[in-house]
Amino acid sequence: MKKVSVAIIGAGPYGLSLAAHLAGQAIDHRIFGRPMQFWSRIAETGGDRYLKSYCFGTNISAPMPGYSFADYNGPRGLETFEPCSMQNFAAYGQWFQQNVVPWVEDIDVARLDRQAGGFGLSLADGSRCEAERVVIATGLSGFAYVPDLLATLPTPLVVHTSDVSSFAAFKGRDIAVVGAGQSALEAAALLFEAGARPQLLVREDEIFWQTRVSRERSLWRRMRSPIAGLGTGPKAWTLTHFPGAMHSLPDTWRTRFTRNHLPPEGAWWLRSRVEDKFPIHCSINVVQALEADGRVALTLRDTSKNNLERRLVVDHVVAGTGYDIDVDRLSFIEDEMRASITRLKRYPRLDASFESSVPGLHFIGPASAMSFGPLFRFVVGADYSAHVLSGRIAPKASLAA
Ligand SMILES: Cc1cc2nc3c(=O)[nH]c(=O)nc-3n(C[C@H](O)[C@H](O)[C@H](O)COP(=O)(O)OP(=O)(O)OC[C@H]3O[C@@H](n4cnc5c(N)ncnc54)[C@H](O)[C@@H]3O)c2cc1C
To answer: Is 51 a pocket residue for ligand 1 (Cβ < 6 Å)?
Structure first.
């Protein structure tokens, strides 16, 4: 079996960008995964779903011009600023894959193990691949977080937002949506619009909303609050324009900043679809969740009313409770190798070339955020990752071959 220099696991924006740049440097590689699966699934749930990021901040990176999100949208008369629909982004990703990275192998990697001089990958069809280096670009797959309290309920009664395949399936049902971030707010709006009866349970005292940024802004406004791929303001601008800078900062500062940057808030375009549409209960902690005659009985504690407790019975709970990136949850990595990956707050600790403590094993995308900062939770970080890995790491791998 011919060993390749690089195997990429995952064919979302990060994996596709890297493959495009490796090809641009004639570095032999294989890329596995269902192209744009995360985004296609979102698109298939139905309803009006939009990106929070700007069009220009959601590019899949190619080494040649002509493949940005705006390059796709412009000639088709689609939005080239914001908001861009999720369906539109999924279609752009499929178009990018078919035109720039047509060699993607549409198959999952079932197991990754270490071998002399590299790695072995077992594919879902039972075949094998050997590689000198492996790049894990599996995004948020496998990291959906449901608090223990809710996770003990059987699956049809509680579902994470990422596992909802159709909002219309909840029509006519009472749903408690837990959370206050974009996923929870959007799920509640989509449930309402699909004919369900959602109630939003929010731990915080209020919901925070992004403000809309005008396309036409004075020079003064643009200088005070510059617009960049990660958002608006000096912090977003600095992070976007110096994507590698955070890696050299002390761990304690960087990890705190990464956790706290961009706290839960809804997109401006979602606000009118949420406010005054369905009940929103703020300052609420869910303290118990029990199955009761095929429904869910929740005990809610209201922290704004001296911890007063009350009961709410619903048909389902939708958990918009985010993601918990934890190397231990990457079950396709063989146990011993996984245990030997050095962690930074449960994420892999990565060097400046996105390499983990296992030589030749790299992580890009959201899993790299603790080492590189919040930019890498978003598509906008794909360009830097692809440039760094193809420029610094892959050439070494191919020379060693
Ligand atoms: C609801 C929601 C909305 C978001 N909106 C935005 C937004 O507006 N803008 C933005 O920039 N970011 C947004 N994000 C963040 C976004 O998810 C990430 O920025 C982006 O998807 C990361 O790209 P990726 O390539 O790392 O992962 P993904 O896009 O998740 O791709 C992962 C790939 O890995 C594959 N894969 C998984 N396991 C295996 C395996 N074992 N073998 C082979 N392949 C595998 C999958 O099939 C998929 O192809 C959002 C996230 C959520 C949850």
So the answer is: yes
